[in-house]
Amino acid sequence: MRAWLLLSSVTLATAGYSRLGIRGGYMRSRYQSDSWEDKSIDDLVQAYSSVFPSGNRNAASHRWATFILEKSAQLTPEKIRYFFTGFCPISGSPVTPMPRSAWRYDLPDISGVEHKGIVYHCCWPCVCDTQSYLRVDTKTLDTAEGPVTFNFLVYGDPCVDPSRIPEEAPDVSCDGDGQLEKATLSDGGHVIIGMLQPLPSGPSAVANDVDQRIEDMCRERQQEGYRSGMGTIFVTVANINPL
Predict the structure, then answer these.
(1) How far apart are alpha carbons 179 and 223 in whole angstroms?
(2) Which of its termini does the chain have fewer beta carbons within 10 Å around, N or C?
(3) pLDDT, tens digit (0-9, with 9 covering 90-100), for 178-237
């Protein structure tokens, strides 16, 4: 009987069950060693409550970014890029990567040099805020395939003046040292909130271009007081410390 119990314990542990501290029971669990290389954007979305303690993702995409980047050493470069297609850098809203959510950009870096690439959005007003407030900066990550440099989307740390952070963005919060909580900084020291994805090889992979039509829509949105998309929430945050 004792031998059977020992064998059962080993079998359960091998099958992916862990022992509870209460009454010696077992429950199914994923070990911490499980790699996110095998996970999907659905798994990323399931982590929402862990990423956003307040349950509010408004203007807090830096938390998505850090959640992914903390796992970079176990991820291939392709998988890192994949996870960054799963949320909008402006709103923080989860996104299903598909041609109609992809936008082709020419975005400037910190020094003003333009870079071509793709960004995934939940809605067109986020394109306006991307053009107005985001810049491109690099960061070299230790990945499962060694060091790789990526082009990230960044903005200035709003914690230079915490009093100006709107109440509608509770997870844009500052720590005791006056730094943005759960933020990862680029090589230039700016807050990473998204990624400029490489241009795809197939033209059908991207449905949207940032053209004169969208620029006219953005101008009209601004004139009407930002009544669409994130409204003024992200604009207020980004204007605290613009790049």
Answers:
(1) 33
(2) N
(3) 999 999 999 999 999 999 999 887 666 677 888 889 999 999 999 988 876 677 999 999
Q: How far is CA 36 from CA 68, 82, 112, 196, in A?
A: 9, 12, 35, 21
- What pLDDT digit, counting tens, does each position of 70-125 carry? 999 999 999 999 999 999 999 999 999 998 999 999 999 999 999 999 999 999 99
Q: What are 44's two structure tokens?
A: 């990323």
At which residue do the structure tokens 């509608």 appear? 168
Query: Which pTM was predicted?
Result: 0.84
DSSP 79-130: HHHHHTTSB-TTT--B---SGGGEEEEEEEBTTS-EEEEEEE-SSTHHHHHH
Q: How far is CA 40 from CA 81, 82, 86, in A?
A: 12, 9, 9
**214: amino acid identity, one letter:** I
Tell me how far apart the alpha carbons of residues 229 and 238 are, in angstroms, rounded to a whole number.
15
